[in-house]
């Protein structure tokens, strides 16, 4: 089995590959929780590869834990000027977030033509890649979790629980309660951003391009872009290209 990890600042997305296919996976909120859940699978690991947006020190600590726990070599994705036909568009290529970079590489591998890649997680990122594989840059803005957290933190009377939040998103008419007003307002901002990115892609990339959606909140905007390709494991596709394992 191969263990694949996408290590964010808050959560770690993991999955196990067997025979070239994902067999099981999930999300954990700590290094120790990751060790425990992988142990519960009772499988023999032959390799591990990961992408991390954490600090070098935090990433090294996780790799050390994994190698000690499972006696397996861990390979970490690194920044690159180019990879699999895609050219990094940042002036300082190493400053482009590795998750964004691998998502772009994965999208271009699947598409083979111009693409807009939107990752909807805690933060929302968008990236544009031309038909020739040239990464043309992108944008970063707060996602739903960050927007609601900021409102709850800095507005004293903005208080509601997760059940109210979920119920509030059952419609998009003007809210008649705080949870409805906040959740629907944030969602409309998110959907507006996505629509704007598609319009910009039409200017930058021409009429023939694919749109890829990934990240936990992708289902919230699927209907905004008819024909968009929802690929939850897009970063993992890029990771396999960056860190091939025989």
Which radius of gyration do the C-alpha atoms yield?
A: 19 Å
Give the structural class.
alpha/beta
Instruction: State the end-to-end CA separation.
Output: 12 Å
Number of separate helices:
7
Topology order in helix (H) and strand (E) letters: EEEHEHEEEHEEEHHHEEH
Spatial order of the strands forming the largest sheet = 3-2-1-4-5
Averaged pLDDT:
93
Strand content: 25-35%
Quick one: how many beta strands? 12
List the uncertain runs: none
Shape: globular
GO molecular function: ATP binding; metal ion binding; pantothenate kinase activity
Binding site for substrate: 90, 97-100, 178
Pathway: Cofactor biosynthesis; coenzyme A biosynthesis; CoA from (R)-pantothenate: step 1/5
Binding site for K(+): 119
Task: Give an overview of the whole structure.
The protein has 246 residues and is an alpha/beta fold. The protein has helices spanning 31-40, 56-70, 98-111, 144-154, 162-168, 178-205, 234-242, and strands at 2-7, 12-18, 21-28, 47-52, 74-76, 82-83, 86-87, 115-120, 123-129, 135-142, 210-214, 229-230. A hairpin with a 4-residue loop joins strand 1 (2-7) and strand 2 (12-18). It is globular. The mean pLDDT is 93.
Features:
246 residues; alpha/beta; five-stranded mixed β-sheet; 12 strands; kinase; Type III pantothenate kinase; nucleotide-binding
Q: What is shown here, in short?
A:
This protein is α/β, with parallel strands linked by helices and 246 residues long. The protein contains seven helices and twelve strands.
